[in-house]
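Why should sequence recovery work at all? Because a backbone constrains its sequence more than one might expect. Tight turns favour small or flexible residues, buried strands favour hydrophobic ones, and helices have their own preferences. The token representation captures these environments compactly. In the example below, the structure is given first.
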């Protein structure tokens, strides 16, 4: 079994690590776009072109499924990717976990990039799945870039700014960008101070999307299997190594522990 994951940068680490934990026997192909990142400021047409190139590079390695481990690419390019690759390669998109977060009808904060916050796409998800909850959209300028660079000071500053915009009575937090799951510890700490230690429920997409990919292949999680899966790293279509910044995160270290080269 081989599963590919794509993103502009290292945001895909969270979903890749989730696949590795759930199926240690899976061969992984992680395809990113350091030459073209960040994707967020690009026009939808330009972003789709970049995403197609990254997906085609992954598809050349004949994966059994492709995870689009990027919220922005899932919004703008998912239909195009599916039109080109399916049915030969199932394509699984990443959707912010707004529906499960709103299920209890509490106070929900959705942390997302400025481009996603207030977008027609996100507002549609809120309308369709969060009608019974009080929802606050929290823009997080600079956070994804800080995570990508593994810049602790910039992460701390961006998290603090977003925490200040988060209502103190929040019950559920949606991490609406795949990069944010890499620093969920910093986010939890900042919000614990903001909400005076109230136990919050966090909703990410990494594990759900990994489970969905396995489901599409008719497989189930088997985390007890031997860790025999390989890792192929593609950077703007070129076979390469994990960026050094990946090792700043537990997810990157997990993947590197499988013998992946790091540059």
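From this structural description, the recovered sequence reads:
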């Amino acid at each position: 079994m081989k599963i590919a994951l794509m993103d502009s940068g290292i945001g895909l680490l969270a979903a890749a690590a989730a696949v590795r934990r759930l199926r240690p026997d899976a061969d992984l192909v992680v395809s990113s776009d350091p030459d073209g990142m960040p994707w967020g400021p690009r026009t939808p047409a330009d972003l789709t072109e970049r995403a197609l190139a990254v997906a085609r590079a992954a598809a050349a390695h004949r994966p059994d499924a492709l995870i689009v481990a990027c919220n922005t690419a899932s919004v703008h390019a998912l239909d195009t990717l599916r039109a080109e690759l399916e049915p030969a390669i199932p394509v699984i998109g990443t959707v912010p976990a707004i529906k499960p977060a709103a299920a209890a009808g509490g106070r929900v904060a959705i942390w997302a990039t400025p481009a996603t916050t207030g977008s027609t796409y996100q507002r549609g998800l809120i309308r369709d799945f969060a009608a019974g909850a009080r929802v606050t959209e929290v823009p997080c300028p600079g956070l994804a870039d800080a995570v990508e660079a593994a810049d602790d000071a910039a992460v701390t500053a961006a998290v603090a700014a977003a925490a200040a915009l988060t209502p103190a009575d929040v019950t559920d937090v949606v991490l609406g960008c795949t990069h944010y799951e890499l620093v969920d510890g910093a986010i939890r700490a900042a919000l614990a101070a903001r909400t005076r230690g109230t136990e919050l429920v966090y909703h990410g997409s990494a594990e759900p999307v990994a489970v969905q990919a396995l489901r599409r292949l008719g497989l189930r999680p088997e985390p007890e299997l031997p860790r025999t899966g390989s890792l192929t790293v593609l950077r703007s279509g070129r076979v390469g190594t994990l960026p050094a910044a990946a090792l700043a995160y537990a997810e990157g270290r997990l993947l590197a522990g499988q013998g992946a080269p790091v540059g």
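A few observations help interpret the result. The chain has two domains: 2-94+206-256, 98-203.
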